[in-house]
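Retro notes (design track)

What went well: tokenization of the new backbones is finally stable.
What didn't: we kept losing track of which sequence belonged to which structure.
Fix going forward: every design gets posted as structure first, then sequence, in one message. First example under the new rule, 420 residues:
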């Protein structure tokens, strides 16, 4: 019996030595991937990067519906900021470079008139992010006129910054900019309406070839340099929507305006308050993974912009405890809010109450929240402005109680981790 056991053991041991090694489970692959990687230090070094929209921009990759697409993305301002950056460094920011976005990717089988369903699978954050106050930009740009920067240390749990002591922001990453290329008819419609708005004195950003990518289409010598759309305003094709609820697990529905759709991703946010009031959230580079599906002929349902859908994801974004302020469209006599400066000030100026003005109600609520943070938490106004931009939510209360629409600013109390 012992002889037989010894022989069996020797046979098994020998077979183990001779058999090929099985792969570790990490090496077992079950998914099909398409990688769209960064190349070079900045967008102008990168053939996979663009910062304008036009249907003449050629795809940098192709993907089939159902494949996982990994986009390597850059920060929104395409900067050289570091963890030691200072307010003076903001002067070097070139807004002509906004936003460096990765793509476009041609989705096989997608046609104009279809809907591209884009499910966010994962956001892998960089280790550094920033929030800036850029003079002349932001919801309260007339009040906050000096540069400021918060340098955030990031991981998948929370973000902290020495410039905002006593605060830790939980990770709720999403794509600030995501969309598809507009078609030729859409480009012409957009150019006309934005030109008309600019002529009336409103804010509109006309095509700007300086700093535009890709150069061969949108740059100073580009084939369509006078038609390439800027990326700052969101439009029917998606783009810079900055909707914080589009987190992992949700699905964005985009109408396709060109065959292949031309999917792009960029401007990823580690976290953001509803409103992004300072003009930036916690901006970062990231690796973003999405999966697509084509819904044939469904674009007619989206006449005014994209839709999105999901399950219980929004519950995670709600605060455990909060403090909130309410605002109405009230102002001081003689004050003209900056977003209304192109409207006849002779009528608006003397009034202390405007009718059905959500922007003024939001402004009043936000300023009350900033005052509360300054008076009760000991922050400077600039620090408080940043906190509201990355963590506090503007919420519409009503749009019927004329003349005073109501907007609340809701600030989660769990972000405060101790005394300054």
């Amino acid at each position: 019996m012992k002889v037989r056991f010894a022989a069996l053991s020797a046979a098994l041991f020998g077979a183990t030595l001779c058999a090929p090694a099985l792969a570790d489970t990490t090496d077992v692959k079950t998914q099909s991937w398409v990688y769209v990687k960064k190349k070079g230090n900045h967008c102008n070094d990168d053939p996979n990067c663009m910062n304008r929209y036009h249907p003449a921009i050629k795809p940098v990759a192709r993907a089939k519906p159902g494949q996982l697409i990994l986009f390597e993305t850059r920060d929104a301002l395409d900067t050289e900021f570091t963890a030691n950056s200072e307010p003076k460094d903001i002067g070097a920011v070139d807004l002509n470079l906004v936003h460096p976005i990765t793509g476009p990717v041609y989705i096989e089988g997608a046609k104009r008139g279809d809907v591209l369903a884009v499910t966010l699978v994962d956001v892998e954050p960089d280790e550094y992010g920033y929030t800036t106050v850029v003079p002349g930009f932001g919801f309260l740009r007339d009040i906050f006129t000096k540069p400021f920067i918060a340098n955030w240390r990031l991981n998948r749990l929370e973000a902290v910054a020495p410039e905002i002591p006593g605060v830790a922001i939980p990770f709720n990453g999403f794509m600030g900019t995501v969309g598809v290329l507009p078609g030729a008819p859409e480009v012409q419609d957009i150019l006309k309406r934005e030109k008309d708005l600019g002529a009336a004195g409103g804010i509109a950003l006309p095509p700007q070839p300086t700093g535009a990518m890709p150069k061969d289409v949108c740059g100073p010598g580009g084939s369509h340099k006078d038609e390439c759309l800027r990326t700052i305003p969101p439009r029917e094709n998606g783009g810079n929507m900055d909707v914080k609820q589009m987190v992992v697990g949700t699905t964005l529905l985009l109408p396709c305006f060109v065959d292949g759709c031309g999917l792009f991703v960029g401007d990823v946010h580690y976290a953001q308050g509803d409103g992004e009031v300072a003009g930036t959230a916690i901006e970062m580079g990231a690796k973003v993974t999405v999966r697509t599906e084509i819904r044939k002929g469904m674009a007619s349902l989206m006449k005014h912009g994209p839709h999105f859908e999901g399950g219980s994801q929004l519950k995670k974004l709600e605060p455990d405890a909060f403090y909130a302020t309410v605002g109405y469209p009230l102002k001081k006599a003689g004050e003209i809010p900056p977003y209304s400066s192109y409207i006849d000030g002779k009528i608006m100026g003397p009034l202390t109450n405007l009718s059905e003005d959500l922007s003024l109600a939001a402004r009043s609520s936000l300023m009350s929240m900033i005052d509360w943070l300054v008076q009760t938490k000991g922050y400077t106004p600039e620090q408080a402005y940043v906190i509201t931009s990355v963590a506090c939510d503007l919420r519409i209360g009503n749009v019927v109680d004329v003349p005073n629409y109501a907007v609340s600013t809701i600030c989660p109390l769990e972000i405060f981790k101790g005394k300054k």
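Added context from the reviewer: Helices lie at 2-18, 184-199, 215-218, 313-317, 345-348, 358-377, 381-391.
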